[in-house]
Amino acid sequence: MHRSVYVHVPFCRHRCGYCDFTLVAGRDDLADRYLAALDRELDRVEPPEAGGRRELDTLFLGGGTPTRLTGPQLDRLFASVFRRYQLGEGAEVSVEANPSDVTPELIDRLADAGVNRISLGVQSFDAAALKTLERDHLPADVPRVLETVRRRIDNVSLDLIYAVPGQDLAGWEETLDAALALEPTHLSTYGLTFEKGTAFWSRRRRGELISPPEESERDMYAAAMDRPAAAGLRQYELSSHARPGFECRHNRAYWSGDEFEAFGPGAASLLGGVRRMNHRGVLGWLRRLEAGESPWIEEEALGPADRARELVMLNLRRVEGIDGEDFPRRTGFKIDELLSEELLEQQRLGLVERDDAGVRLTREGRFVADGVMSAFL
Ligand code: SF4
């Protein structure tokens, strides 16, 4: 039974040139329709057999920009969620926030609704990189924003991006150090990717944007692993670092292969071994729900071997990797049964290590994680 819920809030002031997420920019006029449709989608949640509301360990509001909603709209969203779900003891409730949106009133509202973790889209402490990324805040805003958040919510993740065109290793290290100096409980560090269909993808093709050289990108990832560790934040996933006890429980549940339910345009759920994907267009998702139709456009019941292979991918994102006891319990397969040759090859290359506890990427393997994982597909 799922104990994690994700809600996708698809509104942004502006679509950043690198972003290919499901969202609408400059269409806040759709927010009330979105909230009504979300309420309908939540009506599809089956109540527990004993009646009442389902209990959650984690709730995550992501986007898009959840903090783009007005205060009353956020209240409405939480009321919709909490009509069907209740928070279990010590549940984690995370919200992604844009630094520009943070005010004392917003934080009071979120904290009063039960939010106890904020993921702040800081991206960089370098004004030039922020400009390239088309973000609407300045590095100097971040300490004040953080102070505002911490008046009520002290579990704060700072999200950062490296390998921004024009950025060098020294610039990235300065961003890391500036972030760590603010003593966040959690840090997420993502390498910038150029997704087909984004403005950045076209601009790179035209030669207007040039990524840092591969070697420099590799050094940046090394710094993203080493600097947080030196400041007491343990890496627990390819891009995630936390003070002990502050790992994101929602994401950990996902990487562990736990079931979860997700709502909103483009959201994907895993329930009863069935993966479901909502309509990826905001208007398409809206119209389906307004017409009383299902928001799902894809539904796939994975066979046992496919589920097990998928779990390999998810587990390998974790620094602890695949748990030798948990994996067979969840999938019915021993890791060797499923992967022995691929595993031996990756082991021989020094990218994967194994012992009695399980199988994990080596430090070297983390640099080429996508390639290692595709070898297991
Ligand atoms: S604010 Fe975030 S979600 Fe919105 S467009 Fe920019 S990168 Fe995408």
Automatic annotation (TrEMBL):
Q: Where are the transmembrane segments?
A: none
GO cellular component terms, semicolon-separated: cytoplasm
Instruction: Please indicate which superkingdom the organism of origin belongs to.
Output: Bacteria
Functional summary from the UniProt entry? Probably acts as a heme chaperone, transferring heme to an unknown acceptor. Binds one molecule of heme per monomer, possibly covalently. Binds 1 [4Fe-4S] cluster. The cluster is coordinated with 3 cysteines and an exchangeable S-adenosyl-L-methionine.
| GO MF assignments | 4 iron, 4 sulfur cluster binding; coproporphyrinogen oxidase activity; metal ion binding
Q: Which InterPro entries match?
A: Coproporphyrinogen-III_oxidase, Elp3/MiaA/NifB-like_rSAM, HemN_C, HemW-like, rSAM, rSAM_horseshoe, rSAM_sf
Keywords on record:
4Fe-4S, Chaperone, Cytoplasm, Heme, Iron, Iron-sulfur, Metal-binding, S-adenosyl-L-methionine
Write down what this protein is called.
Heme chaperone HemW
Q: Which GO terms describe its biological process?
A: porphyrin-containing compound biosynthetic process
SMART domains per the UniProt record, alphabetical: Elp3
SUPFAM superfamilies linked = Radical SAM enzymes
Q: Which PROSITE patterns does its entry note? A: RADICAL_SAM (PS51918)
What family classification does the UniProt entry report for this protein?
Answer: Belongs to the anaerobic coproporphyrinogen-III oxidase family. HemW subfamily.
Localization recorded for this chain is:
Cytoplasm
Q: Which organism is it from?
A: Alienimonas californiensis
Q: Which residues form the Radical SAM core domain?
A: 1-234
